[in-house]
Specification:
Helix content is about 25%, strand content about 30%. It is α+β, with helices and mostly antiparallel strands.
């Protein structure tokens, strides 16, 4: 009996492939000295920082939540708490975020996480035909329609970013 061939790549790419989603992978040389993973990705790909989104893990009332916001801005923790009907939000411990998602900091993807977490995508994503998010490794991004990301992560769209 032949083994079913598995799609190659990170868990995020495997998840996109398994879902039959249309996406483009962008690889670039990651510079460990760069101060911002997201800004580095935008520069390397020649894409506006408004279209490149970073994946952040926060804790809202004790539960981990994925926040996906443009690299050109920052996460509004109060807005994130409101988006998930919570009271208090804080950034999650990086080691906990890595253990829970299965990814390393700077390469956390909203897709293909070890444990599926509630996800909130900043509403600004819907202004673009495609956005870029981490493909699960530093130096690797996937470009996809925001509706695809929303569908595959069951994300809520909400204004959670600050300029």
């Amino acid at each position: 009996m032949a083994k079913k061939k598995q799609p190659a790549g990170t868990p995020a790419i495997v998840a996109l492939t398994a879902a039959g989603a249309e996406f483009t992978v962008h690889a670039y040389e990651h510079d460990p000295a760069h101060p911002s993973y997201g800004e580095e990705a935008a520069q390397a790909m020649g894409v506006s920082p408004d279209r490149v989104f970073k994946t952040l893990i926060a804790e809202v009332d004790g539960a981990l939540v994925v926040a996906v916001v443009p690299v050109s801005g920052s996460l509004d923790l109060k807005a994130l708490a409101t988006a998930v009907s919570g009271k208090r939000a804080a950034m999650a411990d990086p080691a906990l975020a890595e253990r829970t998602t299965g990814y390393v900091r700077g390469g956390i993807s909203p897709l293909g996480q070890r444990k599926r977490l509630r996800t909130v995508l900043d509403v600004s994503a819907s202004a673009h035909p495609t956005i870029c998010v981490s493909a699960g490794r530093r130096g690797l991004e996937v470009e996809l329609p925001p509706t695809t990301l929303t569908t595959l992560t069951s994300a809520t769209l909400s204004p959670i970013a600050r300029p």
